[in-house]
Amino acid sequence: MSDELADQLRPKLVHAVEPLQVAAALESEGLNDKIARDRYGHTDVFSLAEEVYARLAREARPPVEPAPRRPRMLAQLSHGLLYGMPGALLPATSALVGAQWLMPGLVLTTGAGWILGGCMARMVYGKPDSAWTVVVYGLVAGAVAALAIGLLVQGPPALLALCVVQITFQLCSGMLLIHHQEALLAVLMGPGVVAGVTYLVIGTPFAAIVAVVVGTLCIAGVTGAALVLTSRQRAPLAVPRGLLLGLVHSLLTALFLLQAEARYVVGRPDIAIAGAGLVLGMGVLEFRAHCFETDVRSVIRQVCYPAEFTRHGHRLLLAGLGICLAVLTVLSAPPLLLVSITAEGAVMALAHVVLGGAYFLAFLLANQGRVVELCLAQGAALLIHPGLRLVAPVPVLSDTLLFLAACLLFLCLLLVLMAARLRDVWAYR
Predict the structure, then answer these.
(1) Is pLDDT above 80 for 3?
(2) What is the pTM of this model?
(3) How many CB atoms lie within 10 A of CB 161?
């Protein structure tokens, strides 16, 4: 009998997305709880509506298709390594500039490049045909910022040049990756990596000069490639909606990470190297976020009820988070073996693993435009670290534990926000 009822109501309920709509249609046809019991054997109209909706959903559901292929898996996984390629030149650069100037300059320049790069990415995604204009303006702004940082640190002239080169690489490599040119970036930076490794083997001043010169030429090639690649996208610069909010988010993110590491870049290599695993694993976080978006959308075709979607979505979310944390843990171990492992270094490495898990969730929320929530969560973490540290100075171990607590808070807040978003099925259609 319920089959006949489903056939009768199908034209009205072709777009039904929940059993309540079916219950309303049944009542509009004059069916009440008594008819549902006497004629269809259900306790009430809502129970009958559940069965009719399930039948309609099964008939309307398309055949289950295999999950979409992920042809860019290796490319996305390589992003962390590609961003970290200039790190091979750091020993040679340090020998020429001096670590006391190099590390503070690099920390500040990395922060500025992070913020500028985030703004450039938002502008390109908002209006792709203005990519060349974005690159040109970004390079000018980056050069000004790098020179200001070099003067602020009050280092030698070589530091000014280094800051400009570093921020140029950040901005232009990001543009190549936006245009899916991972292989080109690897080829262009390959000679610089080889030169940097060669200096580690030889260790002479001349080898350091050669490595820095080769690295600079490689970054010049990356810059030229970014300009050539975007040369046909010369539309006037347009400021997309939400750019200011995105700028605030990038600023808070860079501030949270870099302020924790800045005080240890000189004199505490065990702590300074603790974030290497996160840098190497950024491509993994990006790829897992892409996998989650693909998998959670395929779930919609396999379930009938919103509660089922939410339940499957929570499982996928926890699985993705677990994979990210496991991979970052593995990647964080080898760098620690290069120095004497200390309690402070181990805690800082663990904090970066937790922070990487938070970044995975942040990618998902940012893709849904939840930037305000991200800013608030990041602000809450900043209240813990450096907020509490500014109230009363603490020893190094306590400082690293405080940073770990801030990362845990950040992760928990984003996990709650993302879990709640999975109740909104419409956001994934």
Answers:
(1) no
(2) 0.78
(3) 16
